[in-house]
Amino acid sequence: MSILPKLVTVLAILILSVIFPTAQNAPTADGPLREELRLTDTPPGHQIEKSLADFEVKYDTLQKDLREGELANQVLSRERAMLWMALCLTVAIGLGLFLFTRQKRLKNKLEIERSRSYIQGMEEERRAFARELHDGVAADLLALRLNLSDANGANARAAEMAERLRMTVRSISHQLMPPEFGEHSLGEIIKRYVETISTGDRDGTLVSANFVEADMPAKISEHTCREIYRIFQEEMSNILRHGRPSHIDVALQGSPDGTVTLTIDHDSALSEDEGGATSTGIGRRTIEERLRIIDAQLERSKHGNTSSSKLTLKLK
């Protein structure tokens, strides 16, 4: 029951009580009021207070919800800001890595170009020097041997020495000349080089050398073959000059994933000062330049009196 009808009823009864104070039924005039007040669940003032209390509770609840919403918005704003910061940081790191990688790639490219120019100049010098040895010094030694041989054998030993020197010069000139990989494979040229070593007498020491080839790719670029061969040639020169081995095993091995491995095992132990890893001679620098050009690795190891050089290259 609403409050307004109750208030109207009470007001009407009060008016009637004033108008008819002495009426016969006066003692009972306030009966409806009493009855109405008795039937009323709660007094009007108490009902209003209860409604105000309910309104305050709802208002407080609304205020609490509003504060929670504001806090949630603040948290959401902070999370959004953190997300943007993380995104910007990620982009900055990615850009930095890209620029660093690009700079490193350009630097590596410049180093390779510089190494290629250095090696190309060296090959041209080798070719010119080889021609000079073959056409000049070797020819003069041949003429010297012929002149010594005409002296009725008196200078036979000198003639023999001149011939040996001429053959040495010819061998050096052939080694200096770039090999013709268009006509022969890498394995064939390395084998021919090993055969010349195994038949030679190095400073009074007879060197035996063996060569094994297995599973090599059918086609390797001429440029790559030349660099591999020059590295092998320089490494063998260091071994023969400083290690003085009596036996050398050379193995050229290919694998299905395109990896080429060239291994040189010999019965001598080279020190670092005799062509080892810390040597800073021209030959060592040349090897490093050639390795950089073809992106290959050369590892050297020692096991007692046995040493090993291993060249590894992944064909592209």
Question: What distinguishing features does this structure have?
Answer:
14% strand; 7 helices; five-stranded mixed beta sheet; 316 residues; single chain; alpha+beta
How would you explain this protein's 3D organization?
- The protein is α+β, with helices and mostly antiparallel strands and 316 residues long.
- The chain contains 7 helices and 7 strands; from the N terminus they run αααααβββαββαββ.
- A 5-stranded mixed sheet has the order 3-4-5-7-6. The chain has a two-stranded antiparallel sheet with strand order 1-2.
- The longest helix has 106 residues, at 44-149.
- The protein starts with a helix and ends with a strand.
- The model is unreliable at 22-29 and 275-279 (pLDDT under 50).
